[in-house]
Structures are given as structure tokens and as C-alpha cells.
Design brief:
Blueprint (H helix, E strand, L loop, with lengths): L1 E6 L10 H10 L4 E5 L4 E6 L15 E8 L5 E3 L11 E6 L6 H14 L2 E5 L10 H21 L3 E4 L8 H18 L8 E5 L10 H10 L3 E6 H7 L7 H12 L6 E5 L1 E5 L2 E6 L8 H8 L6 E5 L5 H28 L1
Parallel strand pairs: 1-2, 1-14, 2-7, 7-8, 8-9, 9-10, 10-11, 11-14
Antiparallel strand pairs: 3-6, 4-5, 4-6, 12-13
Length: about 350
């Protein structure tokens, strides 16, 4: 099955909540949605007002972590599955798409009923390979994304890695340690989403295809996220024919978790670097060529529109895909009639 969806809230959506986005995506004929964890604010507050409650019972904020003092008075992270005590400090997350766990749970149930597959993108600015302080802040954002993703039933949380630090080999080694830590602490066996690491579109950022495939071999619990415009840009415009699409899909699909998750849009690029995303009809990255290959793709795939036109281009991809199927069937019928 090939699913088509968008990254973010539909442009035509009048509502701005998680539930609105899911329902509107379904009404647009789409069956995938990449929810974006953007414009979030996290504050640390005393727990006195919430003592005796569980984080998921709080109805006016999203508590993503409890910090509790140990015997020496040092506060330690203990997650959200424990009853709140008066001496705790809470990390509260405020998000424009949902105000509490009940709303996220409701969104997940509606998505399941409507067959809209959910994923969640962590904040776009990540610097996991930087100095300890900055790296820990980025790590926290992935932790919170995984907690939210589990609540809404997302299959995967997608993240960028950030800038190279030191040599590329040193960056790969550090990335392996960071993602091993993440997937051990928030493992899929505990109900958390898979961690998907996205292809970078600029040479100064970690995450070319070779690095992601190597990382996926070293940390089996993560999956590489195939961003077609990023791959195309880094290689100076490499995806030009069916064979080139087949080759890159083959690399990524070996490490996919159930379905192959991919993102698509048009792109402007120069000298091996992405300049900006564009509408799919613009530029030299052609969905029609990818659609030709998808007719023979043996697995499941989710294709997310990152285009500035969002749902318009998601629908466009679906139309081109169905049109390609129809043309192939017509050719077969013609050949059979002439036999």
C-alpha cells in the first residue's frame, strides 16, 4: 500500500488542533499525517498543586517529565508513569495543537478510526552532536516527542541530527552513542514510536545516505528517513530516472520499520546543497519518474508532501500515481488485444 499525506496542518484547515488536522486530512482523501512538534514551550514548575495526581490526569497542560530529589537532594528524571509528589518539579510542555493528554489520546483514536497513519516530527533545529549542554537540550526534545508520540499512537518520531562535530567519522560515532541511548531509554518494546533519522539536505549537516545506512546497521532500533529532495540535492541532482529511484529506495527499505517512510517535494539546489523546497511541479526532481517505479515496489510506503502547497501536492502525487497505474493497465490491455 502507498499512503499519501502531508507534513503539518492542512493549509485549508480552519481549525489548528491535532484533531482538526486529522479529520481534515481524511476529508482531503489523505491517509497519513506528519504532525509537527513546533512552537512548544517547556517550563519547570513546583508540583504542589498536582500532588497525588498522575501526569496524564492533568487537564490544563502536558507534563512531559517529573524531576524528583534523591537522598542527596539532587533532582533526577523519573518519567511520567509515577504519581506526583509535593516535592517534585514538573516539566510542563505547552503546545498549540493539544492542551493535555486526553486531547492527544482522542486524536490517536480518531486517526485509527479514519485510517490516517500518524507520525511526529521533533523540532527542526537539533544539535545532538554538539557540546553536552546543547546536545542535552536537543535530546530532551526527542524525549518529549517520543512521549507525545506514544500517547497519540504515532508509528515513528522523526528527527534531524544537526551539524558535524569534528570529523565525519567522529560525528558518526557520537551519533551512534546518542541514538543508542535514546532507543534504549525509549524503546519500541515499551510502546514508544520508532526513531526515524532524516536525510540532511546540506553538506554541513550530518545525515547523508551512507551515514544513515551505517547508523541503521549499528543501531538497529532506528530507521533512516528517505527525504527525496535532500538526497537529490546532496548528490547534485542525482534522481533523474527510474533506476536512480530504485537504487536509493532499495538502500533505505532494507532498514524500514514496517513501511518505508519518505518525504517528497520539488527542490531548488546548487553545488550539492538544498536551497529551498518548492512545489512538486517545479525543479528537476520529478514525481512522475518515481511513480513509474512505485508500480513495481513490493512493499508498503508512506509518502509525505513537504511542498509549500502541502495537501495540493499530496493529492497531486496520488493522482499521478493512479494515472500511472491506469496507463500501465491500458498498455497491457492493448498488448493483450493485439496478441
Amino acid at each position: 500500500m502507498i499512503r499519501f499525506g502531508i507534513a503539518g496542518i492542512p493549509l485549508t484547515s480552519k481549525g489548528r488542533t491535532l484533531v482538526d488536522s486529522i479529520i481534515d486530512s481524511h476529508m482531503l482523501g489523505l491517509n497519513a499525517l506528519e504532525v509537527q512538534l513546533l512552537r512548544v514551550n517547556v517550563e519547570e514548575v513546583p508540583a504542589v498543586d498536582y500532588s497525588g495526581m498522575y501526569p496524564k490526569d492533568v487537564d490544563d497542560s502536558i507534563i512531559v517529565n517529573i524531576l524528583r530529589p534523591d537522598d542527596n537532594g539532587n533532582y533526577q528524571s523519573i518519567g511520567i508513569d509515577t504519581q506526583i509528589e509535593s516535592e517534585d518539579i514538573l516539566q510542563e510542555l505547552f503546545w498549540n495543537m493539544a492542551k493535555n493528554y486526553d486531547e492527544m489520546t482522542e486524536g490517536g483514536k480518531i486517526a485509527k478510526e479514519l485510517d490516517v497513519q500518524l507520525s511526529l516530527h521533533a523540532p527542526y533545529y537539533m544539535d545532538l552532536l554538539s557540546s553536552e549542554g546543547i546536545s542535552e537540550k536537543s535530546y530532551d526534545h526527542i524525549k518529549w516527542a517520543l512521549t507525545i508520540g506514544r500517547t497519540m499512537g504515532a508509528r515513528r518520531v522523526i528527527t534531524h541530527t544537526g551539524f558535524y562535530r569534528g570529523s565525519k567519522k567522529e560525528s558518526l560515532n557520537k551519533a551512534q552513542k546518542v541514538y543508542s541511548r535514546i532507543t534504549e531509554e525509549f524503546s519500541h518494546s515499551k510502546g514508544f514510536p520508532y526513531v526515524g533519522v532524516e536525510t540532511s539536505g546540506k553538506p554541513e549537516l550530518f545525515g547523508n545516505t551512507a551515514e544513515l545506512i551505517s547508523l541503521s546497521k549499528k543501531v538497529e532500533a532506528i530507521e533512516p528517513i528517505l527525504n527525496f529532495p535532500h538526497v537529490h540535492s546532496l548528490a547534485g541532482g542525482s534522481l533523474t530516472d527510474v533506476a536512480s529511484f530504485e537504487a536509493i529506495i532499495s538502500e533505505y527499505s532494507k532498514h524500514a520499520k514496517q513501511d518505508l517512510y519518505a518525504e517528497f517535494s520539488g527542490v531548488e539546489h546548487k553545488d550539492g546543497s538544498e536551497i529551498k523546497m518548492t512545489a512538486i511541479k517545479h525543479g528537476d526532481l520529478k514525481f512522475e519518474t518515481l511513480s513509474e517505479y512505485l508500480q513495481d515496489y513490493p512493499g508498503d510506503m508512506t509518502l509525505i508532501s513537504m511542498s509549500p502547497l502541502l495537501e495540493h501536492d499530496a493529492q497531486y502525487m496520488n493522482v499521478i500515481f493512479l494515472r500511472t497505474i491506469a496507463k500501465r493497465m491500458q498498455r497491457k490491455t492493448t498488448l493483450k488485444a493485439g496478441a
